[in-house]
Amino acid sequence: MRKTFVLQFYRNQEALLMANPYKGASGSFWELYAQGRPRLPESILRRIWEYHASSGGSFEVVHEPGAGIGLHTERLAEKFRHVIVSDTERSSLDIATTRLRGLTNAEYRLAKLENAARVPRAGIDMVVAIDMTHFTDTGKMLEAVHRQLKPGGTFAVILVGPSKLDEPAAQNIWKPIWWSNLEAVTQSSVGGKARDHPWLERFVNGLDAVPLPEHMFEPVAVRIHINTAGDWHDEVLPPGLQFDKAPSHSNQSDHVLHIEEEEDLRLTMDISGLREQLAAMSPAGLSTKIERSLEELDRSLNGRKVSGHFLVQCLLATKRR
């Protein structure tokens, strides 16, 4: 009995470690995801392309791991000769192949980034990881990226956080709603308390917590913080909630950019648009608690549209030559 209990405990811990709340999501959810998620602004892509070109990178082959339904794939296909689109979910890849059937330079692979053995070793010019690295084992993820990239290739990571509303009264209601929805999504994946899920802790700590081992990457990285007037950790968390803050791996040689009021990441929407944002996070649908909170926000807005912006981080690194 003791052996069975211990074995089950470690299986549960492993499930929590690698839990992805979008595993097994339905096609109808991915439609909501496409409606509610922000598109990558040209300003971010332009910075990524310029960084890659400045280090002598080629625009031949790009790998987009965790691509889901291929929301951003067309943008990559416009720049690169060939795009490898991978994801762990067959349902989302099936939708991606349908959505992108007009693309002639994309191929699709069912694989985790950490063990995508079929991706050519040292054959990728750029790995673009969008909203997915926090769902991976960081060490294994970095090893896989290093193995895939050509010497001098670029690792580009983008993390899109919550939207932040300009009106303080509306933001004071919206921020706890957004977080409560994220907690509900987390708990519906494999259960347990939200703060027990390491992926959520990695999300809260942001990309500064991602190390770049010197034997893998060049010593100078670019770390971009967009619309995060304060610290990412503090901007994401609502008042009263604590998560251990991971040490920052940003060092003095990194180029750190803080950009405020990025026009491409502005939003103006009514309560329906805000509900779409939440629905794009929630494979199981919005809870009764969230719906009641949205009603409170709707009363506060009184039918008005509200403006705001998305919080975004971007990390750019070059594989050692």
Automatic annotation (TrEMBL):
Keyword Methyltransferase: yes
Domain of life, source organism: Eukaryota
Gene Ontology MF terms in the entry: methyltransferase activity
Protein name: Methyltransferase domain-containing protein
GO biological process: methylation
Occurrences of domain Methyltransferase (ranges): 64-153
Source organism (scientific name): Cercospora berteroae
Swiss-Prot/TrEMBL keywords: Methyltransferase, Transferase
